[in-house]
Amino acid sequence: MTTIADAAPGARTRNRWLKDAVGRRDGAAGLLLLDTLAAIGFAAGIAGGVTAVTEQGAVLPWALLMLGMGGLRALFASLASRRGAVEAGAVKRGQRLRAVAAMLHRKAGVPIDSGLLATQAVDAVEALDGYVARFLPARRAAAIAPMLVLGATACASWVSAVILAGTLLPFVAAMILAGGAAAEESRRQFVALHRLSARFADRVRTLPVVLAFRAETRETEAVGAAAQELAKRTMRVLRVAFLSSAALEFFAALSVALVAVYCGFALLGLLPVAVPETLTLGRGFFVLALAPEFYAPMRRLAAAYHDKQAAETAADTLMPTAASERAVSMAVAAPLILRDVAIQYPGSDAPAVSHLSLRIERGETVALLGPSGSGKTSVLHLLLGLAPLSAGTIEAGGAPLVSLAGQASWAGQHPLLIAGTIRENLLLADPQAKDLAIQRAVAAAGLGPMLATRPGGLDALLDARGSGLSGGERRRIALARALLSPAPFLLLDEPTAHLDAAAEAALIATIARAAPGRTTLIATHSPALAAIATRVVHLGTAI
Ligand SMILES: Nc1ncnc2c1ncn2[C@@H]1O[C@H](COP(=O)(O)OP(=O)(O)OP(=O)(O)O)[C@@H](O)[C@H]1O
């Protein structure tokens, strides 16, 4: 089941992680600042035009300035959102690769949590989109753009600049209060969303089991309850969001209204107090046109604030993955030497295999025989880096071995198939394989008769469960896939299990033909299959 922490890690750790994950990206913020400069130019155009009309001067240059600046604003705004989307795309791609790679290179013996992987690689990474594309540029722009507007306003009317700055302080205080409440509510909502989507993904994957045990009503109710919880938390987030946007709109409207009242009264000479500046119509218009721009960057930031909270919660999910240990896969060669090896799975009290010493020469075929539970599969998994090495050492070609992954063809006990055609399943072993090689592998694995009777043959579609295939057919596909791969090591886990005597004999002959030239390890219960090995290793007693 998916593990998403209820308790948030330290804000500092999370911020550092987000900073590293995103890197330095200033392009979109720079474009937003250019947009503010164009807004100042636009206001100058309006003010100049009004002055020219009243003083009967040339209006055209001001009109052109206004139009030009208006056009530039549209251009900068659209470039900023495009740049943000490109930067977000790059960050998401990197994080998705990291999440999948961390899951693939997880510690040996730790199972894949598909619900968590889906949450991380899809939802959590997607939550970084708005953070990079909108929030970060808006935050950087909000730190500088109001100062630019304030400076330009002060040049025309410093009293108006003081009025704008005066409304800023209570606004910032209100925003800090609302932001704190919103952050916690939003984090809870995100956790609920992750729970719901991970639970849904898990249950869809295990649908046949749910149906077989008639647990559909129970599971539907559980998913319904999780959806209710999400709806409740979403409403709370919306409540806080409405409150903070009301505060923002109030102060934005107040600042414009105060500036308008001041300019109107100053121009009419009706101010009740003397002010040490003389306001002209042009300056008044400039200040009025610019006043809404003072709060515009803050409005943009408030609209993107939810993106920040979403990214912080996503960071809580992605951080443990990024920190997990990664195995390294490198070229290895026989002989394989196992010295006093033990395998103990996480959470198990006793080792599955202990004190195993074994030397496998290049080109040798070794059969691992032993009763059920004696650890045959575990030894193969150990070599593939899927089971943990708890004691002892493994060497390959004189160097410590981390994993044979990438160097070994593997046909496991429960062959994994992907949704797609039989051909696509086979090509997983060697995407460059030619048709002739595929035909040979198919014939060698004894798949010929099955493909001849199946509509579509090699291009017949399979689902991820291999529905419509018998257990033996699935094994043959896995074996054909292993034979197709040119890897120097061949690891087969009970390739002849559940086959009748004739099918077993045919498959044993196939394996006997495929094994020479590769270093082969076969886990089996079958003495007939073990008989083709150059050496038989007996593993201990059943647990
Ligand atoms: N991922 C795992 N986590 C915990 N214990 C495991 C895991 N995989 C295997 N085991 C345990 O390790 C022991 C050895 O299992 P393994 O599958 O290697 O035996 P085997 O000899 O291949 O059995 P069989 O012939 O039935 O396939 C068993 O007790 C099993 O329960």
Automatic annotation (TrEMBL):
Gene3D superfamilies: ABC transporter type 1, transmembrane domain (1.20.1560.10), P-loop containing nucleotide triphosphate hydrolases (3.40.50.300)
Organism name: Sphingomonas zeae
All residue ranges annotated as the ABC transporter domain in the record: 338-543
Protein name: Thiol reductant ABC exporter subunit CydD
Gene that encodes the chain: cydD
Entry-linked CDD domains: ABC_6TM_AarD_CydD
PROSITE patterns linked to this entry: ABC_TM1F, ABC_TRANSPORTER_1, ABC_TRANSPORTER_2
Domain ABC transmembrane type-1 per the UniProt entry, residue ranges: 27-310
Main location (coarse class): membrane
Keywords from the named record: ATP-binding, Membrane, Nucleotide-binding, Transmembrane, Transmembrane helix
Pfam families cross-referenced by the UniProt entry: ABC_membrane, ABC_tran
Membrane spanning stretches: 28-53, 59-76, 165-183, 240-268
